[in-house]
Amino acid sequence: MNDSFGARLRAMLDDRGPLCVGIDPSPALLTAWGLDDSPAGLERFSRTVVENVADVVAAVKPQSAFFERWGSRGIAVLERTIADLREAGTLVLLDVKRGDIDSTMAAYAEAYLDRGSPLAADAVTLSPYLGFGSLEGAITSAVANDAGVFVLARTSNPEAAGLQQLVAGQVLAGATAANAGHSPFGPVGLVMGATLPELEDSLTDLNGPILAPGLGAQGATPADVARLFGPVRHAVLPSVSRDVLADPKRVRSRTLFYRDECAAHLSGVAAPS
Ligand SMILES: O=c1ccn([C@@H]2O[C@H](COP(=O)(O)O)[C@@H](O)[C@H]2O)c(=O)[nH]1
């Protein structure tokens, strides 16, 4: 029997430390790297990130949108990037933010969670906007494939607050119920921005991982992550993209900086700032 996603993520967090690096080949970053905004540019960019970070971080998060811009040629690069990351031995969190009615969710689950799919990831991001229950089939599929899902709860962008504050409690309740009885983590993580001023709900019963984007370009620091998540800091996976991707020559050093700072703050070794 294979290890569950929760067990693999726990092992990676303990072994490598708490950091996820994004692969976000935006037009601006491709230009900054001196690459063409083309599928070939995407491929060069993604390969460079994989080579520099895949052996030192717990997880890597390709942002699907930047690959989808190029249609089937971009998706082909995404498939190769996922394969390269898996081969390199890091966890792949595919940021696709999918959410739909149950029959359509089944197709998304087949695309992103079925072991045999060329786009299969260790975990994907899902949107609960059609109701937490609409994600049940995808969660079942994740468990069957030893994969996981991260459901948007309180995202890092400030304009989300008004809408998400109305429903985050339901998302937390659904995730907590789905994770009951699993160890060390259940299959359902939450996306909670590292930029949030405070947590509106206690996460101590979640029994699942927390993906926390927003480090760097969106203003959050490792100290903010530790302060925000306090009692559940052991379950947090902070994520950073643009700030480590700004200069191809510094991708590895910036990654190691963020990884070590997050580890120090989340373990309580670093002095709070
Ligand atoms: O709440 C969320 C959920 C996802 N994201 C995604 O993460 C990266 C962040 O990039 P940075 O360059 O580190 O700001 C990007 O792909 C977002 O789509 C998020 O920012 N917030």
TrEMBL record:
It catalyses: orotidine 5'-phosphate + H(+) = UMP + CO2. SUPFAM superfamilies: Ribulose-phoshate binding barrel (SSF51366). Pathway: Pyrimidine metabolism; UMP biosynthesis via de novo pathway; UMP from orotate: step 2/2. The keyword Lyase applies. Keywords: Decarboxylase, Lyase, Pyrimidine biosynthesis. GO terms for molecular function: orotidine-5'-phosphate decarboxylase activity. This is Orotidine-5'-phosphate decarboxylase. Its EC number is 4.1.1.23. It comes from Nonomuraea fuscirosea. It is an enzyme of class 4 (lyase). InterPro entries: Aldolase_TIM, OMPdecase_AS, OMPdecase_type-2, OMPdeCOase_dom, RibuloseP-bd_barrel. Belongs to the OMP decarboxylase family. Type 2 subfamily. Residues 18-257 form the Orotidine 5'-phosphate decarboxylase domain. Transmembrane segments: none annotated. PROSITE patterns: OMPDECASE. GO terms for biological process: 'de novo' pyrimidine nucleobase biosynthetic process; 'de novo' UMP biosynthetic process. It holds the Pfam family OMPdecase.
